[in-house]
Write a structure and sequence with these properties.
homodimer, 252 residues, alpha+beta, Nucleoside Triphosphate Pyrophosphohydrolase, Arc Repressor Mutant, subunit A, 8-stranded mixed sheet, two-stranded antiparallel ribbon, 23% helix, DNA-binding, NUDIX_hydrolase-like_dom_sf (chains A, B)
DNA sequence: ATCATAGTCGTCTGCCTGACGATAAACACT
DNA sequence: AGTGTTTATCGTCAGGCAGACGACTATGAT
């Protein structure tokens, strides 16, 4: 059959972002309050249309900068600071996922260190870091006692998939360091694992594991007492990306 | 900003399939010869446009049936036979990946047992199972001495990603059984791992591992000598989907 | 009868993990 | 200055699992 431009239906293609960070010992996601219908006033994941001339990863990186100011880590140039990890998550294309039209959304997952307050087009009240637990509970009540509305569209599913990806990926990769500032202690890294997995880990075994894995951490020589207690060595992320053998997530 | 239908560029959305199987101790992928420009006469992955009223996974399952006659395993009803595993792989949307227009392709990965000859729209000469090694080598010569043209579009990248997904996924899941018929022996399952990973495994340690993992294999009671040698017990896939601890892929 | 092939059961050793004791170095009190 | 608290770090020990490999079994082929 010859090429026929009318043989396919037109789609809108967007990127949505699951931006995760660890704040106050909790795994948090960036959420944006919708200013327009549908789902006006409800919380949603940041995202937007893919432009005609840009790749999907470019679109995701652009949205990330627009929403957070974060520069996505280019895998080819992992040297720069303040860079978040960014990877494609999955694509969602249910015909009814957007009531207005047929939209296919390519969701991306970003892991970022703890940041100052977010901004959404300059309006801070319409963007926030919310614990994923709070965003994912349906029809419950938040910590402030107010009723919690579920996320817009299918964003609860996307967020859940992103969280699950993050949880499994820090098992066998060194990605947990993407949640840390450029220099961090073993204890800070452990608190990242504890927050993402929602478990408590043995500090001694964790220390043995991460310091004993070649290429995972490189000491910077400095120490810090910002967590209180005995001064802790500072490290930065080493070159290794894969953890072998993996970090074991405790059984339920 | 209000909703404006002209605010986004239109895209064509397709699904492409990486259909993998194990034939004659080699990991093979389904390839279709293109009958039209661009890349006319070159091999490509099967795929097609997503219809206006179908979900992405529905489109992938439909293409799979059209190309192979395989029914995709519905995760909710894993009882049926002859069902292939089907999952979303990744989405490819480089603006220049299709010279005709802006196409975003949602690639899916299917794992199937060894099948009779494939068909492509009824024309068997335009569809074949080819060793992935052969499809991925660029500018070399195939086993028959003929020069090998690279796959059309970015399908070499998609195939490589699918193969890598399959290789890593059989480590920590029981998905390798998707390459086997409904009843199989431990040795046949081992040859699947050997073909997908391109390694040689110790039959004794492999046997201990798979029979010692609860829920991985359930004996059917029958035996077979179809591989020669001493009769081997027949098994079918158990209910377990996750392998913990995982099957370890030998170091390079 | 002998051989080749493939399957199955054991043994041993080394590595890694989980559990947990012990020590070290800071700060906050009194 | 001493005492308690907190966090970091080092060590020890037992159990589980994987890799290496020996031994035996049950078929078909010659």
């Amino acid at each position: 059959m010859p090429y026929d431009p009318s043989a396919f239906p037109p789609f809108a293609v967007t990127v949505d972002l699951v931006v995760l960070t660890v704040r106050r010992h909790a795994l948090c996601s960036l959420a944006i309050r919708r200013g327009e219908a549908p789902f006006q006033g409800r919380w949603a994941l940041p995202g937007g249309f893919v432009r005609a001339d840009e790749d999907l990863s470019q679109a995701a990186a652009r949205e990330l900068v627009e929403e957070t100011g974060l520069c996505a880590h280019d895998p080819a140039a992992p040297a720069q600071d303040n860079g978040a990890h960014l990877e494609q998550l999955a694509t969602y294309g249910d015909p009814k996922r957007d009531p207005r039209m047929r939209v296919v959304s390519v969701a991306h997952l970003a892991l970022a260190p703890d940041l100052p307050a977010p901004r959404a087009g300059g309006d801070a009240s319409n963007a926030r870091w919310a614990p994923v637990e709070e965003l994912l509970q349906q029809g419950g009540y938040g910590r402030d006692g107010e009723p919690v509305a579920p996320l817009a569209f299918d964003h609860a599913q996307i967020l859940a998939d992103g969280v699950e990806r993050a949880r499994s990926k820090i098992e066998y990769s060194s990605l947990a360091t993407a949640f840390c500032p450029s220099e961090f202690t073993v204890g800070e890294l452990r608190r990242v694992y504890e927050a993402v997995w929602g478990v408590v880990l043995d500090p001694r075994n964790f220390h043995r594991k991460v310091t004993g894995t070649p290429g995972f951490l490189v000491p910077t020589g400095g120490t810090t007492t910002r967590q209180g207690g005995r001064p802790a060595q500072l490290f930065r992320a080493g070159g290794a990306t894969l953890l072998n053998p993996p970090m074991l997530r405790p059984e339920v």
